[in-house]
Amino acid sequence: SIIESTRKSMAEFKKEADILNGDLQSILKQEEECRSESIALKEKFRNLKNYYETNKTALLSLEGSFNKLFDHIMNLFAKFESLLEEANYPEASAVLPEIEKLLDACSSVIEEIPFLNTLVDKVIPNKINDLSLAYQSMEGEYPLHHLLVKTRIEEMNQTVKDCKKSLQMMSIVGVKDKLNKISFDISKFFADFEKEKALIRQEFENKRT
């Protein structure tokens, strides 16, 4: 009958409408989830850039590295927004973990980098230079060859360069330990210099008596 046929048609229409509504809700949920995740990541990115700006003086020699990183992250955000506009939610969602990984990696080291970079750029090179000058002023008067100071200074300078490369790649692994070792060795050399001076003074005193 017409009534039965109409009832069936209405039931089918409702079923299709429910499916369509479900699909639409699913799409809207995907978009909402993507946007929510991206907002949190953008806030994290903003905090990272603010910290960089606050410590820019200490990080000046790493400006190129940070600019490359920030540009890359911004390009990923732009890619995400483009995919979102195309309603390509699976691919858009796949970009977010990549952004998060970069932000987390940088956030985990950013607080230590300004201090380490200052050590690498100024503090340790100045200490090495002081050691070199002290050695040069003494080498003609005191027997220092056995200390192998020149060789060790070359090694120290190379270590500083290696540490700088690590920081440029946003890696702090082993940097602090290597710089502490240099600082310790320099202090030991100065102590050895004083011992040599004391020995010469003692010899001089012995000759006088």
Briefly say what this structure is.
By secondary structure, this protein is an all-alpha fold. Helix content is 84%, strand content 0%.
Largest beta-sheet characterization: none
| Tally of strands | 0
Mean pLDDT: 87
How far apart lie the N and C ends? 136 Å
- CA radius of gyration is 32 Å
Backbone shape: rod-shaped
Question: What this model shows, in words?
Answer:
- By secondary structure, this protein is mostly helical.
- 84% of the residues lie in helices and 0% in strands.
- The protein contains 6 helices and no strands.
- It has helices spanning 2-54, 63-85, 89-107, 113-138, 149-168, 175-208.
- The longest helix is centred in the first third of the chain and has 53 residues, at 2-54.
- It starts with a helix and ends with a helix.
- The mean pLDDT is 87.
SSE layout:
Blueprint (H helix, E strand, L loop, with lengths): L1 H53 L8 H23 L3 H19 L5 H26 L10 H20 L6 H34 L1
Helix pairs in contact: 1-2, 1-3, 2-3, 4-5, 4-6, 5-6
Annotation keywords:
209 residues; mainly alpha; single chain; 6 helices
